[in-house]
Specification:
single chain, mainly alpha, 0% strand
Length: 416
C-alpha cells in the first residue's frame, strides 16, 4: 500500500503503554492498554498487507498479514461493542462500523479459497478417489459408458452408480471452481480497491487514535462520591467487569435457546432435513448457532481485557468491589480471568466447533447455488446434491460435538 495519512502513523506509533496520572480510572486504564496493544497489531498488519497487497491470496505472506489484520480488527470492534459505556459512544460506534467493513472485505477472498478447497476435498472423498477433485478430470458422458456383462448386472448397477457419481463429481468440481474462483477474483479486486481508498486511510487514522489517546466517557473517570466509600478511585472497574459479565449472560441466554437436547442425539438429521427444504429454512435454523458463535467470541475477547498483564494490579480491587455489590465473584463463570483454565480451554474448543459449523453451512449453501446453475447435466446435479447432503451432515456433526463439549464442561453452571 502506498503512503497515506493512515498508514504513515504505523511507523511512528508508540509502544503499548497503560495511561496513568491523567485522571483515568483503573478500569479506563485497563481498557486503554488493551485497545492500545490491538491498535498496534492492526497498524502493523495493515502496513504488511499494504506492502504485499498486489500478491495473490495464496501467498503465505499476504495470508498471514491479512489474518493478523482481521484478528486485530475483530478484537478492537468486539471491545468497542462490549465496553461501549466506558467510551465515547458516537466515536466507538462509527469506528466499529468501519472495522466491520475492513474485516468483512478481507475475509471474502480467504473464505472463497477455503470453501473451494473444502468442497473439492469432499467431492474427492465422496467419489471414492480420496483426493480433491479437479475440474480438469471432467470427461464427456460418452467416455464413461460401458457394456454390461451377463450375470453381473448387480455389480454393473453399483459400478454405474459409482461411475455416475465420479463423473458428476468431476463436473461439479469444475463448476464450483469456475464460480468460486470468479468470486475470489472479484473479492481480490475489491480488497485492492479498499487498500487504496480514502476510507481505509480514515479507519487507520481512527485506530491510530487508540494508540495515543482513547476517547473515554465519564464512566471511565474515578468516582469522587464520598458516600460511595469503596468505589472511590475505582470508577470504571465495576462498569468494566459488569459489561464483561453482561456479555457472558448474553452467551448463556443464546445457548439456552439452542436445541441442544435434539443436537445431543447423533444422526438426528435435523440439519439435513431442514436443509433439503429451502435456502430460507437453512438460514432460519443456522442463524441461532451463528449468533452463539459471535457471542462466544465477544465473551472470549472480553476475558482478554481482564486477563491482560496490566490487569494484575487492579484485579483484586475489582473483585472486591463486585463481591461487595452482589456477593459473588464475577470471574467465576465461564473461565473468566483465567480462574478456570479447563473452562477456558473448553470455550476455545466450543468456538472451533462453531467455526466448523459455520464453514460447513456456507459450503452447503455454495453447493446449492451451484446446483441452481441452468442446464447442468443430471450427473452434475446428482453429485452436487450428494455434496450438499454431506456438508449438512457436517453441520449436524458440529452441533453434536458442541453439545458434548458444552454439557460436559458447563452442565453445573447451566442451572445457575
Amino acid at each position: 500500500m502506498r503512503g497515506g495519512a493512515g498508514v504513515s502513523r504505523i511507523e511512528s506509533s508508540p509502544a503499548p503503554r497503560t495511561p496513568s496520572g491523567d485522571g483515568t480510572s483503573p478500569g479506563g486504564q485497563l481498557l486503554a492498554a488493551y485497545l492500545h496493544a490491538r491498535a498496534g497489531d492492526f497498524l502493523r498488519g495493515l502496513r504488511l498487507y499494504g506492502e504485499r497487497g498486489a500478491e495473490s491470496a495464496g501467498a503465505a505472506g499476504t495470508t498471514g498479514a491479512a489474518l493478523s489484520l482481521r484478528m486485530a480488527a475483530r478484537r478492537i470492534s468486539a471491545t468497542l461493542h462490549t465496553f461501549r459505556p466506558l467510551l465515547d459512544v458516537a466515536w466507538a460506534d462509527g469506528l466499529r462500523t468501519e472495522l466491520a467493513w475492513v474485516s468483512g472485505t478481507l475475509a471474502q477472498e480467504h473464505a472463497c479459497t477455503a470453501r473451494l478447497e473444502r468442497l473439492l476435498e469432499a467431492l474427492g472423498r465422496l467419489s471414492g478417489t480420496g483426493e480433491a477433485v479437479s475440474g480438469a478430470e471432467a470427461q464427456p458422458e460418452s467416455e464413461s459408458e460401458s457394456e454390461s456383462v451377463p450375470g453381473q448386472r448387480g455389480q454393473s448397477r453399483n459400478k454405474a452408480t459409482a461411475g455416475a457419481l465420479a463423473i458428476g463429481a468431476a463436473r461439479a468440481g469444475a463448476l464450483l471452481e469456475r464460480q468460486l474462483n470468479l468470486a475470489r477474483t472479484r473479492a481480490h479486486s475489491t480488497t485492492l480497491q479498499a487498500l487504496g481508498s480514502a476510507r481505509l486511510h480514515a479507519v487507520a487514522d481512527g485506530v491510530a487514535l487508540l494508540a495515543s489517546e482513547l476517547p473515554l466517557s465519564p464512566a471511565a473517570k474515578p468516582h469522587r462520591n464520598g458516600s460511595a466509600g469503596i468505589l472511590d478511585g475505582l470508577g470504571g472497574l465495576d462498569v468494566l467487569e459488569g459489561q464483561a459479565l453482561l456479555a457472558e449472560e448474553r452467551l448463556w441466554k443464546a445457548v439456552s435457546l439452542l436445541p441442544l437436547a435434539r443436537a445431543g442425539h447423533p444422526y438426528n438429521a435435523d440439519a439435513l432435513v431442514n436443509g433439503l427444504a429451502t435456502a430460507s429454512a437453512e438460514e432460519v435454523q443456522d442463524t441461532p448457532w451463528h449468533q452463539v458463535r459471535i457471542l462466544l467470541r465477544l465473551h472470549r475477547y472480553a476475558g482478554e481485557v481482564l486477563q491482560q498483564p496490566a490487569a494484575q494490579g487492579f484485579g483484586g480491587m475489582a473483585t472486591e468491589v463486585e463481591l461487595r455489590l452482589d456477593g459473588r465473584d464475577p470471574r467465576a463463570g465461564l473461565g473468566f480471568g483465567g480462574r478456570d483454565p479447563a473452562a477456558s480451554a473448553a470455550l476455545r474448543r466450543a468456538g472451533r466447533l462453531l467455526d466448523r459449523h459455520r464453514d460447513a453451512a456456507e459450503a452447503a449453501a455454495a453447493a446449492t447455488a451451484a446446483a441452481r446453475t441452468p442446464r447442468i447435466a443430471p450427473a452434475t446435479a446428482y453429485a452436487l446434491g450428494v455434496l450438499h447432503a454431506d456438508q449438512r451432515h457436517e453441520v449436524e456433526a458440529a452441533r453434536f460435538a458442541f453439545h458434548e463439549v458444552w454439557q460436559t464442561s458447563f452442565a453445573v453452571q447451566a442451572g445457575r
